[in-house]
Write a structure and sequence with these properties.
- This protein is an alpha+beta fold.
- The protein has one domain: 2,3-Dihydroxybiphenyl 1,2-Dioxygenase, domain 1.
- The chain contains three helices and eight strands; from the N terminus they run βαβββαβαβββ.
- The mean pLDDT is 95.
- GO terms for molecular function: methylmalonyl-CoA epimerase activity.
Amino acid sequence: MEKTLDHIGVAVRNIEDTIHFYENVLGATLIDRYRSDAKGVESEIAIMDVEGDRTELLAPTNNDTSPIARFIRQKGKGVHHIAYRVDDLDAALEELEQQGIRVLEDSLRVNKHGRRLIYLNPADTEGTIIEYCDYPELK
């Protein structure tokens, strides 16, 4: 199955400063900014576009339960995940199962932009958090 880079998620402590950096140093455009209080997300998200390439800035909104807060405590700020777009998330999940690659079942969701996503288990990806996603509305 074909996979293309969709975006890179970056864990940040101060979303305002980071947006400022992306806009003024990298020439990025702020595409969207929103807050998700969904369990397992609990983050403010800013989607930045740099000449067609997307970066999601992720700032925790709850320092006790946000997975982004936990990530920053354990590894510091920086690249949190790499997202790959697949044509069909369901077919990609079957392919992963056949390959013995586990996913984090509780991470399966649809975001506000209609993107279906799930995270692969980092134990099976050499420690890198990898997201698979598709956009069913674009089919």
